Amino acid sequence: MIQPTKLMRGLILAFAFLGVAPLAGANLPVVGVQAVAAQEQLVSSVLFEGNRRFSDAQLQAMVDVATTGIYTPQRANADAESIRQAYVRDGFNGVSVSPRVEAAEAGRVRVTFVVNEGDRAGIAAINFTGNNSISAGNLKGAIRTKESGILSWLFRDDSYDEQKLAIDRELIRLYYSNRGFPDVQVTSVAEFDASRNAYFINFTVNEGERYSFGNVGIETSIPGLNADVLRSAIQTSQGSNYSISNLQDSVQDMAFEATAQGYAFADVRPRLERDIANRTFNVTYLVDEGARIYVERINVTGNEKTRDFVVRRELGFAEGDPFNRSMVNRAREEIMDLGFFSAVDISTQPGSAPDQVVINIALTEQSTGEYGATVGYSTSDGVLGELSLTERNFLGRGQYLRAAIGASENGQTFDFSFTEPHFMGLDIATGVDVYHRIVNETTRNFYGYQATGGQLRVGVPLTSSLSVTGFGGLERKVIDDTDTFDDDDNDATPEVPDPRASAFVDDGDEVWKYFVGYTLTYNGVDDRRNPTSGLLATFTQQYVGWDFNLLKTEARARYYMPLIEDSGIIASVRGQAGVIHALGDDGVHPLEAFYPGSQLVRGFQSRGMGPRLLTSGEPVGTTMYAGISAEIEFPVPVLPETYGLSGAVWADAGWIGDAADSFGLPIDPASENEPLRTSVGASIIWDSPFGPLRGDFAHVLSESDTDRTQVFQLTMQNSL
């Protein structure tokens, strides 16, 4: 691969030499060569001054003086220009670089490149003309170049680069092509404003007519192939907007289904017929027997850290298997989805025979380790912090490892997690989680505890959208519940009885439990991180034994749909429910009961709703709950997309069922006089570098008399 920096360096150096030594035939070729040779000196060291954007090591790789160890004025000037060009590509248009030469020992020289970076040029504004059907905000989100904002110093995505601008034009074209505009044309112009040291970028869009899919059919010449099974893989439904991505995905998925039926050489091609009058494309998928070509060899390069088998197990085929281009394209997506590589390039070349092909996979690795030190605030836990170490490609084997230590005003947490995504090379994920949690006894709760436990996990995909995870674990919990407390901070006076001592546990109680269960997960959303359409659902059952004898069942689901097409306005409906069955003669102990709060209905504190004891007000918990929420999320129109801010309005409703076992103590009727809790509110959502955060402002509409409410809460954004 040609490096632009080295190419520019070579051209500049060549012109510099031509200026000193004329071409052959100009009467002075020997003198010119001698003049250059006389100026060559050995280099003792290469130094850099004034560089902040690039490290010394990065600049060392750009200069030939450091590589060859030989100095000439021409070579030094060429290296200075190489450094300058690197700065310009990163937005430093006013940069200047000059070499300084000093005598060193033994007749050598010390070369210092003095860099005056100047101010970095940004992107003042990105404007669009002709985008009548798609908003500028959506188009800004589709391109790589971003406007300068408060976080530009962190992401450094607001620099002008002509190559990146060419990619942006193609991204805009693809964005339109996936939304019904097959004939879109995009041009761009960049203007530099020296007074602001920033660029104004203008995209001009010629949308063309909007098309949708018409009749969709399948024609196959392969005897025995079940076309009805292939039809379920088609994503180009009649009446939907024309989308080149849906066409490509349909071809890949149909080829995969044909392979699953035993037709590995099946070749799927879409035939499109344009109906200009109705602005539709009629699509016929032609499924025929392709050429019988086999994979002779698979070469994997660029994976300096990642083991070969981690890449190969994502392919779905191996040496000697039939070659299917759709399967190759699918394999590229699977490798990219690992998150280990910034680029995956798959190419083919003829093999040793006409029916053989060699597949070359060129990879560019990216960092998979993260060291985190975060400080935040939670309305339930106060100020909190966490130190964490995460490695998504542990030892290059594709394994996931995370260790974290957290602390808050209410306690501390210690967590360790390890996942092997392909146990013994199979499509089975196994893992282990170990934790130790300390919850302090405070004025907010009736008791504290120390819990130590762990679990084993085994996950198996059932279909492309449905998976099941089995789990089993053990936990030991020691209760901290002092009966007295120092009410005057005076050691000389005796402590007084604690009115908030728990009625259900005693100080020093040791509670053991084991649990075993499963979770079914259906993931039908288009994007797990930022879903805009589809259904996400989970169903969990677990048996809790040892000191308990319970069966817990919980279900959660959320459905997303775009409210206004291409506007960024997304509507969603979320439902959740849970029930606990006591399998023995004893009831449901409050330690294992549900304690609904803001996760069910926003506007309520943690453990802020549900049955309470009449005497002390201690929460008892419930054995049943159900809730439903409706939300509309929308972009904030006055803010740049790069800020990652969006807004939402919502309404919640939750029902609380029977109380857990109260040990014969009376339940406060005022805590159950309103079984249905409701609230409405608005939220600000920030897609921060540490994860999506949301602040919810709530107004409670209905509550029980003893419920505890809150106007604002700050939490992490969760789909379920």
From TrEMBL:
Keyword Signal in annotation: yes
Domain called POTRA: residue spans: 293-366
Family matches, as Pfam families: Omp85, POTRA
Keywords of this entry: Cell outer membrane, Membrane, Repeat, Signal, Transmembrane, Transmembrane beta strand
Location(s), subcellular: Membrane
Lineage: superkingdom: Bacteria
PANTHER family to which the protein is assigned, alphabetical: OUTER MEMBRANE PROTEIN ASSEMBLY FACTOR BAMA, SORTING AND ASSEMBLY MACHINERY SAMM50 PROTEIN FAMILY MEMBER
This protein's name: Outer membrane protein assembly factor BamA
Source organism of this protein record: Devosia nitrariae
Gene: omp
